[in-house]
Every structure is written in C-alpha cells, then in structure tokens.
Write a structure and sequence with these properties.
Helices cover 45% and strands 24% of the residues. The chain has helices at 2-10, 29-38, 69-73, 77-98, 111-117, and strands spanning 15-16, 22-25, 42-51, 56-58, 64-66, 103-109. The chain has one domain (2-108): 2-Layer Sandwich (Ribulose 1,5 Bisphosphate Carboxylase/Oxygenase). Strands 1, 2, 3, 4, 5 and 6 form a 6-stranded antiparallel β-sheet that branches.
Length: 119
C-alpha cells in the first residue's frame, strides 16, 4: 500500500514502465530514501539505468544492490528498514559521483510482506 503511494508520488519526478516499474533520476535519491525510512518502507534492491525519451537501458556494466539478506538477518522491522536504507543511500551517493546521468529502479518491501515471509 505504501509502495503504491510512493510510486504515485514519485512518478511525477521520474518515469514508470507499462508494468509499473518506477525509474527515478539520482537527484531524487536523498528525498526518496528519507521518505521511505520515515514511512518504514525498506529499499531491498536497486538497479541502475540510462533513460531516454524512447528507451530504458541498463547501465554497462550491469550494476545494482540486493539487500534482501537483511530480511532474514534482522530481528525487527525497524532494523530491516535502517540497514537496507542505509546501504541504499550509500550506493546511490556513490553512483551519483560515478555517473550522475543514471536513473535507479528501487525494489521496495513493506512490513506486512516481511511478517508474512517470516517463519
């Protein structure tokens, strides 16, 4: 539910694919991560792309981050959110220094999904 809210809000800053994927310019990263953290939404993955008027193309070499390990190794949802989002902002800042023309596609995870996936 929060994922859809964030997607709708940030679609104005970026682009959405027909399948609902959200692509955001790196300039939005700090605001986006801060809002995810305040809403208790974990960014468990990021992929990086170059986006043009008629295309979305993965960066070369392929680049991304997968924080899903924190879903299993954290003892509370707050810990999941903090660990995932801290890793995400570090990677986003590093990528902005490397190539500020990139866009990112976040994979978001909410508490209810974590509770359902827990043994």
């Amino acid at each position: 539910m929060l994922e859809k809210l964030l997607g709708a809000k940030y679609a104005n800053y970026g682009k959405t694919s027909p399948s609902g994927g959200l692509y955001l310019p790196l300039a939005t990263s700090k605001q986006f991560v801060n809002e995810c953290t305040s809403l208790k939404v974990a960014i468990i993955g990021l992929e990086f792309f170059h986006v043009g008027p008629e295309y979305v193309m993965p960066v070369s070499p392929l680049n991304g981050i997968d924080c899903s390990i924190f879903l299993k190794t954290s003892t509370s949802w707050d810990e999941v959110v903090n660990r995932c989002n801290e890793a995400a902002i570090k990677v986003l800042q590093q990528e902005e220094k490397r190539d500020h023309t990139q866009w990112y596609n976040p994979t978001l995870f909410e508490r209810d999904e974590w509770v359902q996936a827990s043994p």
